[in-house]
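Our platform keeps sequence and structure together, in a single record for each protein. Such a record has a labelled line for the sequence and another for the backbone structure tokens. This encoding replaces a full spatial description with a residue-level series of whole-number codes. Below, we set out a record of this kind in full and without editing:
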Amino acid sequence: MNNVEIQTIFTSPEQPSEAQIQLWIDSALTDIQRDTEIVVRIVDEQESAELNETYRHKQGATNILSFPVEIPEGIDLNLLGDLVICAPVLEKEAQQQGKILDHHWAHIIIHGVLHLLGYDHLDDEQAEEMESKEITLLQKLNIPNPYEQVTEQ
């Protein structure tokens, strides 16, 4: 079972429901054979920017930040980590890229969960592996490849 705690600090009318977020997280964890816990925090641009600068040393808000938990050996915890999602950035990106907002939310949440599982995109090989996994998981949800060129609306 995947236990998801959702902390909604920022809300907008287009935000997905908690059930949708749970579905997307569950779909990213289909290959995991153990119970997991993830905290999802939905924030505004100010909190995202502060966290991005503090932990990634980058300026400005970003769509998602992933904070995998490092559990010491011998400690039995199911916590994978935290996802901090900036709803206003996601909404702007979806509009600018001509994407369906729910599809973009699903992609970014799956992307974040994969980071919690140890996937990364620091080099081309890692990026290709991670993107391939994202595309496969999204296809199972009937969501098109987010990396294909999207036409302007």
